Every structure is written in structure tokens, then in C-alpha cells.
Amino acid sequence: MADRRTEAVAVLGGGNFGTVIANIIAARGHRVLLWMRDPEQVEDTARWRENRRYLPGYPIHARVEPTADLEVAVGTADMVFLSVPSASFRSVAEDMARHVRSDALIVSTTKGIEGGGGDGGHFQLMSEIVEECCPQVRIGVLSGPNLAEEIARGDYTGTVVASTDAELRDRVQDSLHSRSFRVYSNPDRYGVELAGALKNVYAIASGMAAALGAGQNTRAMLITRGLGEMSRFAVKQGADPMTFLGLAGVGDLMVTCSSPLSRNHQLGYAVGQGATLDQAQEEVGKLAEGVNTIAVVHARARALGVSMPIVQGLHEILFEGRALAEVLVRLMLAEQRDDVEFVASTAGSNEESLK
Question: Any idea of the CA torsion for 338, 209, 285, 150, to the nearest 10 degrees?
Fold first, then answer.
């Protein structure tokens, strides 16, 4: 670990996860500016010392200062955590770039992918957007099985900080480590970030399965086949397959697929009960990153020639008007091949085969 130092920290994004991260860092003795776009939310949070919109019932630490001034938030920050939805991530990163210090550490916690065009040609992770907007800074990502409500109430939780920069990993570990929150290190930034984004896809599928009354056998099959798909896709783009056996991979996948606290699980459940995508999004009331991820990954997988039958099925259900039951039957009747993805591929089997 790096020597203990007091950090000036900015957390950009006043949602539930940004709020709990700000609280943990403040409890470690650091001054934290929590940036929110909405001045009314800033005023309400400062007055009540609670994020009543996104994390009601949990007090804000005394060293957390809400602000709507981005320049004030990042201008003196040693470390900046970006925790905004993927849809607004680029605009926030571009605005941040005008004020951030060249020696600052930037850590993305957003689990999403930016795409466009429908042909899979544009495919950027959030840390790559930071790299484009702020080429001078050092960059990392934070990802894992991190349901904000459980972290807020002090449940034992682990996460992963990933970067090729060892000092960045050490400083993030030191700033976030607490009695109930453990931070593990991984140099595979791309793999960790992809795992965090891709698992949202399978959480939607799991929510659909739960709505249909699926048993534990079905859910186990869905999670493991989902793990095979997401790791196959990521490795095709240069990620380390071992990353998917850790907290950021299988750990995050398990919790997001099984917890009703997951927004993506909630959305899948609503669709499984017969709601349209628009109705489900309105019912959940919070952004479910997995919807956009399905569209982006579907296009990218086709461009790369990677077999992702669950992603294909979800795309047909959500965007092409296919019936849920029809897609499920097709998936279950598909050809069966090898079980373990990367062991099988070394033996010369077809790793692009339908799983």
C-alpha cells in the first residue's frame, strides 16, 4: 500500500452509488465534494444531510460537501470518481476536462458502453472516453458486486479497482478500504470494466426468468451460460479470461442476476410479466444500463462474429417485438456443445459455437 495521505476527492454523480462512495471516502478522513447537476438536489441534500432522492434514510458524512459547481468540485481534486449514467458520461467528462488537474487520478464507476451507428463500429468504454477527453490524467475503473443500499447499511462488500497504474490502485484501495468494504486490485482495466457493463445484460434475462417462475436449476444455467458469453466476447477484444472468475466477473454477475435491488433485474422482471420496454423503464423509475448495453453489444458481437445467443434473444424481445416464450423455446432447443469455454477452446473445439 502507498503511504497514507489525505486526498482532496471529487465524486461526480449524486446517485445512490456516488453517494455511498463519497461517504466511505469521507469516513477515511478525506474531504469530499459531491457534485450533482441539479442545484435543488444539492440544496436539499445539504439541508437534510441525506440524499433523499436516491438514498433515503442514510445520513451524509460531515466531510461530504454537496455542490453543483463542477469547476469547484474538480479544480483542486487529487482524485475524481465519475459515477454518472453512461448516457451523460461523455458530456460530463468533456466539461470536467476543462478544470481537472493534469496530475489527478480519474476513476470511473459507471457500468456502461457508448455505441452508435448500429453496425458495432463505435464501441467505447467509459474509461476510454476519459482517456479521449483527458489524455494527460491517470485512469482506473471501480467495479464489483456493489449494490449501493447494502453498502450504505454496512454489509460486508468487496470491489475491484483496475488500472495499469499500480500507484493509482494503491491510492484508491487506501481511500476506500473500511471495516466492511474491501478493495481488491487488478491490472486488467479493460476486462474489469467490460465485466461490469456486460453483467447488466444477464440481469435483465434473470429478471425475466424470475417473472416466469424459473427454478434454481434454470437460474444456474442462465448465469453460467451468461458468464460464458460475456467472457467470450471480452476475450475476443483482448481482456484476460481470468478476470471473469473474480469479483468483477462472476461475483458481480451473481449478485446482479439474483437481487431484486438490481435495476436491471427489476426491468427484466417487469418485461417478463408482460410490460413493454417503455412501460418497464417507467415502472423501474431509474436508469437500467443494461438496455443500452444490449443494443450496443448485439451490434458489436455481429461485427466481430462472436456467438451471443442470450444477447440475441434479449435484443429480439426488447427491440424487435418477438415473443418471450418463442425466444426461450429457441434457446432451449439450440445445439449443445462444450461446457467450459476456454478449456474447450484449447482443445480445438469451436469457441464461437452456440452455448
Answer: -70
Note whether 100 and 237 are same-domain residues: no
Lookup: cell for 78: 487529487
* Pair (174, 264) in one structural domain: no
Q: Name the percent of the chain lying above pLDDT 90.
A: 80
* 295-311 tens-digit pLDDT: 999 999 999 999 999 99
* CATH number reported for the structural domain that contains residue 126 in this entry: 3.40.50.720
C-alpha distances out from residue 340 to 167, 231, 248, 330, Å: 35, 11, 19, 22
Catalytic residue among 111, 199, 286, 355: 199
Task: Report CA-CA distances (Å) from 241 to 22, 190, 221, 238.
Answer: 31, 11, 19, 9
Q: Is 33 helix (H, G, I), strand (E, B) or coil?
A: strand
Instruction: Give DSSP secondary structure letters for 54-116.
Output: TSTT-BPPTTEEEES-HHHHHHT-SEEEE-S-HHHHHHHHHHHHTT--TT-EEEE----EEEE
pLDDT in tens, 60-84: 999 999 999 999 999 999 999 999 9
Q: What is the CATH classification number for the domain harbouring 255?
A: 1.10.1040.10
> Among this protein's residues, is 199 annotated catalytic?
yes
Q: Give me the domain span that covers residue 330.
A: 191-346
User: Quick check: is 353 in a domain?
Assistant: no
Looking at the DSSP assignment, which residues form a beta bridge with residue 114?
A: 124
Give 121's pLDDT tier (boundaries 50, 70, 90). confident
pLDDT digit string, tens, across residues 303-354: 999 999 999 999 999 999 999 888 887 887 776 666 766 544 433 333 333 3
Residue 159: burial class (beta carbons within 10 Å; 0-12, 13-18, 19+): buried
Q: Which position has the grid cell 445520513?
A: 59
For the chain, give percent helix, strand, coil, nearest 5: 50, 15, 35
Q: What angle do CA 132, 192, 13 make, to 5 degrees?
A: 60
Mean pLDDT confidence for 105-109: 98
